[in-house]
Design goal:
By secondary structure, the chain is α/β, with parallel strands linked by helices. The longest helix is centred in the C-terminal third of the chain and has 23 residues, at about 625-645.
Length: about 850
Amino acid sequence: MTRMTLRPHQAEAVDAVLRNLSERPGTGVPPEGLRTQVIAATGSGKTLIGVEAANRLSARRVLVLVPTLDLLLQSAAAWRAGGRQGAMIGVCSLRAADGQGLPCTTDPDDLIAWTEGPETVTVFATYASVGMGTLQRAHAAGLPVWSLMVVDEAHRVSGDGLKPWAAVHDQAQIPAVRRLYMTATARVWEADGERPRPVASMDADSEVFGPVAYELKLSEAIRLGLVAPYQVLCLDIRDPGLYGAMATGTHGSDAVRGARLAAVQTGLMRAAVEERFRRVLSFHSRVEEAQAMAAAVPVTAARLADDDPAAFPPAAQVWARWLYGEHAPAHRRQVLDEFASDFLGGPDSETRGVRAGLRVLSSVRVLGEGVDTAECDAVLFADARGSMVDIVQMVGRALRMRPGVGKLATLIVPVFLREDEDADELLTSDAYGNLSKILGALRAHDSDTIEALADPRLRNALPADGTGRSGAADGRGEDRVGVEAAGILKFSEERDPAALARFVRLRVIDPEGTYWLRGIEAATRWLRDTGSTELRVPYTYVTPGDWSGAGRHPLGVWVADQRRSYAAGTLEASRVRQLETLGMVWSVQASAWEAGLGVARAYVEAHGHLLPPTTAVFGGDNFPIGVWLKNQRAAARRAGDNARRREAGETVPYAGELTAARTEALADLDPGWCPVWDISWQRAYRLVLAHRKAGGGLPTGPGELVVQGEDLGLWAVGQRAAWDRLMPAQRWLLESVGIEEPADDSAPAPGAPRSQDARWTANLAAARQFHAREGHLQVPRRHVEITAHGVGDGDRSAVKLGAWLDNTRRRAAKLSDERRGALDALGMRW
């Protein structure tokens, strides 16, 4: 077997992995298998660490898990180059033409057949194959246990990402004797205006991932020359064209997005000249923007070259392309090869042999984890709307470099300043949202350096050459970290060191502090605007933003968060005092009620009633409005029942009754929110009522009118059929919208429908028969009179006389004088 030569840090990592994954005498392998972690900076060669660990462990059956198809192919080639022998197989959706010689399948039976026998085999699979259950089904069908499972980019299976890929850790689903988890970023936080949360945290699940065998921080990798030193270049953009588009367009409109992209392109071209960039990766969150970027860069280059030919390269020397996830692997390889070349075009291109001055490659979620690209000088974050995990990986693209090739990696972040905005308003301005995300992503790679930026003294301690990369006393230790931190941030406009330090501390290192400060500011404004003396904010309330949508804050959710922290005893005393000064109401029960009432108010505004199904959720946090209202109705009915019992002299203890004030608050929103009959009946009635008030006709059959999931035509037919079983109040409500008891109260012969006059004659005959027999016309509602009129059972007919008389009273105003006189002669009581 060919032995590869490891660099010193890789050899140290392999030794540490072997210590953690080797069986200990007398203990054997635990039921959950042996597990360990390697946390090493991006570009430091984690793949080769995995290859050598597998070889030295004599692992015959190895499973390598990666997040993407590109990384799967790259990993297979790297394992072969690293000396791994035996068959290699891919478990993924790649076709043979795209597999670069790697046989691929998604069939569990194929996988079992290809891995049978005593030979060495290495299987490469994507996390998607785990999510679809391919590997699990193969093991259930007889696939043996893996000698070693290598989980690359392992942060993807931690934190919030744990659920979709839980089988990676489960011995019952994918059994393995040993597991090696590898990543460059074991912990990633996401925050800035939202509630801070860990989106990836392997250290929080040490029992799942095992102990850390080896860790190489980014700052140490930079010192060893394994990873490029870096800087963050902020393009301060004050563009008249953008201001004009914003004044006439809405936030997110095509005009505003186009103006933003044009301003970024101009800023990028100027920065490329000043910083001497040769290759730039541009990351976007929208496919159309990446495509537009590639199309417009040469146009912008031509305009700038015409304006100042001495400063800018000719447009003919500017190369621009774009990639996204749906491009075929062969096309992606071709574009990446062109990006890596020093010359424009391919062998058959008209520009063959023309040396490129600048190459810009725009992409959308395609150049992700671990994928090696050419030696790009800079990464442009045209926007940072992706997940924090994705942004962390984009940062990693810039830091990678080939051994022995020195460079300074630049992360370019546009900062869109308002026309009259003070550049030092970093703490509250929305212009710095992308920068806080990028620094947060860098912190996942290099926490020491980013946290050192919170010291304002460092901005005044730059070395003589101004780069921040040399001039320290010995290049080691805390002094070195401080000097590097001082030099990594560059702005087009000067910034106050103290303001910059506060920005890093509160919006990057301690984003929870920013969440708190913005909440206090929003609460103060809410009290001022409402005139309230108590902080009773509806749960769904969000502060209004400016014309662009910026500045919005979920104040209702924020207040609920503070109440929960207070109830748990985790809210700092100083914050308690500050909230009480604002009139905070701490009662958890009261806050839960206020939250529910706020959602109920919003639900009524959206639907016109307060009668949701029990399963209904509503609002940005999916508040269970259906269950909440069900509980309120139960409490209201309990209160009514107990009130009647107390009036009867019974002793009734309080048991979760709804207070009169709360009952009234809900009745103000919808007087019919708590009927004595079924909620679904009331909801359908309210929808029919709203339809009729809007000028709509009465639905007469199934499927004719469906509103909010209710078939109102079918419902209306059902009410006529079940008229006798309805309460008088329900009948009155139905008649108010035009639904009446069927006028045909006798039993017509099948196939021979009666006319309206014939039905009147039959019903009047039954009334006369009853009057002749009883001497009056006081007929019970449910009385049925058997007459000899019409046909039915023999020569007799059943007439629902009581119901007919009740309905006739209601329609008295519509009766002719003749018909009314006929009933008056029988002593009809109107």
